[in-house]
Every structure is written in structure tokens, then in C-alpha cells.
Amino acid sequence: MTIEADRTAVEDDTRDLTLRRFRRSSVVGGRDLPPVSMDALPPGPRWPALLQTVALMRFRHQFHPWLHRRYGDAYTVNLVPGGRPLVLFTRPEVTKEIFAADPEVFHAGKGNAVLGPIMGEHSLLLQDSVEHHRARKLLMPAFLGHALRGYRGMVAEVAASEVDGWTEGESFRALERMNDLTLEVILRVVFGVTDQTRLAKLRPAVNQTVEINPAILLGWAYPRLQKLGPWRRTIENQVDLDRLMYAEIRERREATDLADRTDVLSRLLAAHDPEDPQSGLDDTELRDQLVTLLLAGHETTASALSWALVEVGRSPDLLARTQRAADEGDDAWLEAVLKESMRLHPIIPMVVRTLMKPSTVGGWDLPAGTTVGPSIIMSHQQESNFADPEVFRPERFLGDDVPPLNVWIPFGGGVRRCIGAGFSLMEGVEVLREVFGRYDVEAVGTDVPKVRNITSVPRRGARIRVRRR
Length: 469
What we know:
three-stranded antiparallel β-sheet, 50% helix, CATH 1.10.630.10
């Protein structure tokens, strides 16, 4: 077989893998879930399921507060396809109850199934039970303290390179710059790609994946749509991205310096259960976990950082305090700024679990097949959880009054808490240090959130103006 023929065969195999993933994936998290009687569920709107789904995904920042005002601390939303019920709770004690529940009964993977066509069935976000435990055990060492300290210098280098290029007095959309920066961190620090030719091929494929419209995600409930316009283009982009990723994984496996490399991909290639040397991740598993890290850690961090820049840029006092923290190495304050940004401007609206057995949640006896979860939006907005919740106040996350984990929940909680939480906070601190160590930042105009794919981002891009200090 010629080199060209061999390359064509590999590409055909990759395309087949991608198309099979899309055929297997189901937005409802599996077809084995039992039907659920609405009689046993908390109240909620009686609109058609499609309308409720659009409201929940597209207009989340208005819909969650409206549901809470109308129906109280627990309410039910019906989702396509088939009117599957989602019960949302807003009291912190119920959030704690859900996070502490038996993961064999409260499955998180099925609740995240809308992401299946993109992330893949082996994604940590879509797995449950034994499969989730195995994958998390293999991935966790790449995100523990020692590993995070090793990534810090690389993140700071990427951040410094980005912000050094900002123009004096320039007004720009912080979201665009933060997206560029966090994507570069993912590609270099997580994927370990430094070759400029490969980076140039990866960036557009990744950006098209990140910028998926919510309507595309909803469309996976209707397989016939996959042959039409935007859904077909999404699949073709996934084919392109998968080809690049599988090629990178195959080449990295053959690298002679694998043991000396410190990027996440290289660490995952070497990961295995000490009692079973053959227990490592295969190429498909690696691809799914890398895409998960990409989507969970790229635009989420970029959005949080862009809001942080805008909020600090609105107050001369906050700006001075944050610049002093950047100069003095006060990481606690910089992290508090990032956490308060995540609180005031939630990136993800809720955390969900699907019940595999009848269970009592928040005093409600709920049947198997019901999806439940806390509303992050409402948890972060309520006066009972945060005094003056509409005010940006980083001090909330310092001292003795730090909010409990079941109140501030951008990373979820329990055994399913986001594995990349520590990486995200470390990355955010390093970026804020580089920005405020160099610039005065001024917010330009106002902004409100909008939904892009599954995340919320500043609608106007979080415009700021910077001047050298």
C-alpha cells in the first residue's frame, strides 16, 4: 500500500468512527429510561415540550428566575424529545442532598447526553458507574497539585504572549481575546501541540465546535436533521477535528520523549492502573476525554475571565486592589475575583442527575427516569445565599465567610465535581496576573449574557479599553 493510500484508509476509518458516534448518540441519555408520570412531579409550565426546551436553553437567564417566582423552590420543565421531565431545585440543602446521593442511582452521564454527539460516549461527563470511576481514576493525576504547578509556567507564558500584543488605548471585545488565549492554553498545555502548522489547522476546527448554536444541539433529538445544512456542516467539522486529533494521538504514542513531556495528553497516554499495566486509555477514549477537556475548559474559562475584566474595569477601587494583588503575588485575591465572576455571571445554568431508581429528593418522591438538579443561576442569585447578589464583591470568597460548596456551584459537586476545576482557577489567576500587572483596564459600555452552545457569554463581547500602567 502506498503512503497516499494508507493515509486515505486512515481518514476513511476516522470518518466512520465519527459518523458512528453521531448515529449512536441520543439526546435523551439512552432509550432504556422508563416513562415518567407527571402526577408525581413538582409543578411547572404546561407549554409544549419544544417551547420549554427552547426557553430553558436559549433564554435561561430569564426563564430560571421566572420559574422560581411562579412555582417556588422546586419546579418541573418538560424537554424534547418525548417530554422528558427535568425537576430543578433552588434550596442549598437539596443541592447538598443531590451531590451527596448514591452515584449508582443518581446518574450524571444520562443528564449530559445532549453533548454525546460532540464529546463521545467515553467522555467523563457522559459516563456513569464503573466506567466513570475508571476514567476519573486515570485522568485525575493529570489535574492534581503537582501537575498543576507544572502547567503554571506554560500558562503564564501563553498569557504574557497574548496580552503583550494589546494596543495602547485600544477598545476591544475581551471575550474574543480570552477565547484566543484559553484556546492556545488548551492546545499547548493540554494537547501539547506547539507546531505552528498543526495549530493553524486545529484552531478553526475547534472554534467551530465551540461556537455551535443551541439549535444544533437540540437537533440531535431528530436524526433526520443530520442530513441538513447546519447539522451536516457540524458533522463535517467534527470529522475534520477528529482526523487531526487521532493523528496527534497516534504520533504522540510513538514519541521517544513521552516520559519527559508534561502536557496533559502525554500524561494521559502514560496513565494506567498500577495493578493492570494494560488498563490505559485507547485512542477513542483519549479523543473523547480531550474533546471534553476542550469544551469544558475553553470557552467556560474565557467567559469567566472576560466578565472579570469588565467588572474590575468598572471600578477604580477594584482596579487598584486587583493591580496590587497582581504586583504582590496575592493569588487569593485574584482567585476571589475569578470566583465572583463565576458567581455573578454563571457560565452553565444547572447541574443534572437522572434517577435510575425511585428516590426522594427535596421531600418529593420521584420516579425512576426523572432528571433532577440544582439551578446554578438561582443558587447564585438568591439573597439568602449571597447578600446583595447583584453586586460584584470578591471579598465574599476571602476570610471566614466563604460560601459553602453547595451554594457556589459553577463546577458542580460531589464525586462528579469538575475534574478541571483546579486547572481552571489556576489558569484564571495566571491570566489576571498578566493583564493587571501590565494594564489599566476600563469597561466600555454595559453587557448582558447570551447563550452560545451550552455556555453563557457576554452578548456584546465584554468590551474593555486598556492602557499601559
